[in-house]
Design goal:
This protein is of the alpha/beta class. Helix content is 48%, strand content 20%. α3 runs parallel beside α4 and α10 runs parallel beside α12. It is elongated, with a radius of gyration of 38 Å.
Amino acid sequence: MRRWTRAASVLIAGTGLLVTSLAPASGQTTSGVVVTEVLGAITPVVSGHLAAAVEQAEDRDAVLVVTLDTPGGLDTSMREIVQTFLNAPVPVIVFVEPEGARAASAGTYITMAAHVAAMAPATSIGAATPVDLQGGEISDKVINDAAAFAASVAERRGRSVEFAESAVRDGTSITANEAVEQVVVDLVADDLEDLLVSIDGMTVEVLGEDVTLDTAGVTPELYEMSTLRRILAQIADPNLALLFLSIGTLAVIYEAANPGLGFSGIVGAILLLLGFFALSVLPVTTAGVALLILAIALLIGEIFVPGVGVLAAGGTIALILAGIFLFDGPVEVSPPVLWPTALVLGGATTLAGRAALRARLMPATTGPGTLIGRPATVRETRGGSASVFLDGAWWTARAASGDLQPGEGVRVVAVEGLELIVEPIGVSNE
């Protein structure tokens, strides 16, 4: 009996060991690295690109490394990126690099939302206080909301809640080494290769499961922006936006001053649409938009009410102010672009207004108006009307005052429909 009991115990133990050896491990291991770059302001274009990068990494069963250097950007785009990272099905590593880079404002939230946050030497993170694009003071309600959001992201990733709140409320910014000491980021790495070696073997939680990073010796796969997104990102530049709006306005002005085939009007409409698209992507202020609309209205008004250029001068000043106030914070128009553009547009509008005035004052070259002032001879009369031959055609004519006589020389003073209004200038020798 004891022999059978011992045999059964050995069989059960052996079966347990076999099941244990065949059961899948509780954790997972990555098998690749996808790297993408974020350089510049955080916009909807960047948000869409990072969402696509996460999908690319998921398809490759890889870690996503985002190299980041940003002065900040739109709050809505930042929140979209944070949600993408918090719910990413793959490990996301944010690496603030190269040396001298920063993860300021919106970049602070994005860095803290990553599964692993790293910084290169001589980089900084922080200064995440919201900025009021309307030019007013930030309300406590907005500050509290931003601080709570930053704290919740930091708490979710096990980072310093105190720094998260301080970066929002006080605009605190710290160096890479300080960020490691204060548990804001996980490590400092010299470059991408050093980063991949440093995080190799690290375990992170991805959607409730432990994932071990296997990155040492892996050749990264670069994921770049699509052609369309690169074009949109280029358009979403404040300098280009100002140029599009200025040149588009000028083209429409010239079309209004000298209507023709409509080519300049079409080009102007396209450029204006591109400019307004850029405004929808960039952080703009209400005051800047109002000044821009005023500038366009004044410049167009110069065409229809030309004078000494007062409207054009006002439009130029309004355009310069619009360029200053339109974009806020790290995204701004470069002065070497703003000033020459505004001055050229104002001068060109003044010239267009003068050309339009000269065109209106010139005598007509086509139509019935060209007959005014032309001499003719009365051929015959019937009652109060007469017949004259002018420019190869017979016309019905009547005197502006008095009666007309056959053979009398007349001059056209007006045209009413198909009838000439004439006045005597003498008697013909015919």
